[in-house]
Amino acid sequence: MDFNETMMQYFEWYLPNDGLWWKRCAAKAENLAALGITQVWLPPAYKGTSQEDVGYGVYDMYDLGEFDQKGTIRTKYGTKEEYIEAVRAFHSAGIRVFADIVLNHRMGGDELEEIHAVTDDPENRTEQVGSEQTIRAWSKFTFPGRKGKYSRFIWDHRCFSGTDWDENSREPGHIYRFSGKQWAPETDPENGNFDYLMGMDVDMSNPDVVRETKKWLNWYLKETGVDGLRLDAVKHISFPFYRELLKDARDGGRRSLPAVGEYWSGDVERLKYYLDAVDNEMSLFDVALHYNIFNASQAGADYDLRTIFDNTLVRERPQNAVTFVDNHDTQHGQSLQSFVDDWFKPLAYALILLRQEGVPCVFYSDYYGNPVKNRPMVPNLGKLIKLRHAYAYGSQEDCFERADLIGWVRRGDEEHEHSGLAAVLSNGEGGSLRMKIGERFAGESFRDVLGGCPEPVVIDAEGCGEFRVEGRGLAVWVRESAFEDLVVNE
Question: What is the DSSP letter of 251?
Fold first, then answer.
């Protein structure tokens, strides 16, 4: 029997640096499978600039917590052996593992090099603002702790396009483009050209770099056994690069290798343009929907809920959309902070978990809470995940008639016993919607599994019911048999 796919981002920014994360992952695999999680996105597993590194300050991608480098053998999350054991534990539970892949930049170089460079305007990287000079940059990566195991490739200034640090001047705020280099022409147009993001910017026009990256990815897939990829910062890397890299990996024997890219833009047209540029070789996180959800949480009753899916990837390219409410970058204190308000979180998760379109990604901190930032777990989130797994099947019909009150039905199917549901949410005073769930349910009672509306709804001869919701709330109505399974037997 096929079940709905549901991903969980199984980490957040503020995890403790105790080296126990991979062990915690392995211990939770069976619980997540029972909940209805079918995919997990794990944090970057390779060595960063320090043991504290969350994984995005990439130093050595061949070091998965195996070598004494940057003052540590393990990463923040543990050792290579523990990582591979976590992957195996997820597989034993029937969960696919997505590895976080960060190829845009390198940080924490081992040696300084003298490099001729020019400065470009940080606000418009197509405009040169300084004449050529000699800088000293941490651009040589020799990986002395690894001693050539797995790869003898040495990264130096020829492998990079630029940096933001000159050891001579030690002045922040500059962007140095190495002489004879150009920013990749096919990147996001923000800041004129958004090739450069941070650290040592990897030059994907260098054939030696491309060859080494393909070699590394094939090594990583074989070494770890992961099932898919989460691709970081794709808007900053030459668009054709990932198209060719993914094709190469799939031609190398991983034909079913799924990938989801992070293209951080709320402009759905840019997301669609990128998908076309990479021949739809991947999905993308629906950042446009995230911002709609965030804005709705901020505006309260002033937001027209009928427009919540306007100009989003899940509406225009549902087959390529991975939907989410929040992630590690939108958390409080992060550069892309846009954390959805607590009151709207259950409504937002219903919008991504209980509908046909897209693959939803649940954020770790929303499910477990975040004591470091004093953030609570989202009420009823576990129940919503279970609803998706067991009952959110069949054809879908929307009832988006009021700005403050929307709903939809899923009519169920024969394959999933007791399936079918009605969801209603309101950012105003609440109310009811008459929706048709299907004549085959005539005479059946439906109950609000979240408990806000205690009186049952009996489906009439036309297959319709009057489904209610409280103000600023969410109600999910299921068949009596499903209600007993989710509430009475929980």
Answer: H
Type of residue numbered 196? Y
Nearest CA to 352 out of 435, 434, 281, 292 is that of: 292
Structure tokens at 31: 């619980």
Given 232, 281, 286, 366, which residue is catalytic?
Answer: 232
Catalytic residue among 262, 286, 357, 444: 262
- How many angstroms separate the CA atoms of 239 and 208, rounded? 18
Q: Confirm whether 448 is a catalytic residue.
A: no
Q: Is 42 helix (H, G, I), strand (E, B) or coil?
A: strand
Closest CA to 32 of 75, 86, 80: 86
CA angle (330 as vertex; 327, 335 as ends), nearest 5: 135
The strand ranges marked E within 43-191 are 47-48, 58-60, 96-101, 105-106, 111-121, 124-128, 133-140, 160-163, 175-178
Verdict on whether the full-model pTM lies above 0.90: yes
Q: Write out the H or E segment, with its range, that includes residue 29.
A: helix 21-35
Q: What are phi and psi of 222, to 5 degrees?
A: -70, -40
* 166: enclosing H helix or E strand: none
- Domains assigned to the chain: 7-103+208-390 (3.20.20.80), 106-207 (2.40.30.140), 396-488 (2.60.40.1180)
| Residue 489: pLDDT band with limits 50, 70, 90 | low
All residues at 6 or more sequence positions from 244 whose CB lies less than 8 Å from its CB, including other chains: 210
Q: Over the stretch 68-79, which tens digit does the pLDDT of each residue have? A: 999 999 999 999
d(CA 283, CA 476): 29
Q: What is the pLDDT of residues 275-320, one digit of tens each?
A: 999 999 999 999 999 999 999 999 999 999 999 999 999 999 999 9
Q: Does the annotation count 111 as an active-site position?
A: no
What is the C-alpha to C-alpha distance for residues 347 and 341, in angstroms, rounded to an integer? 11
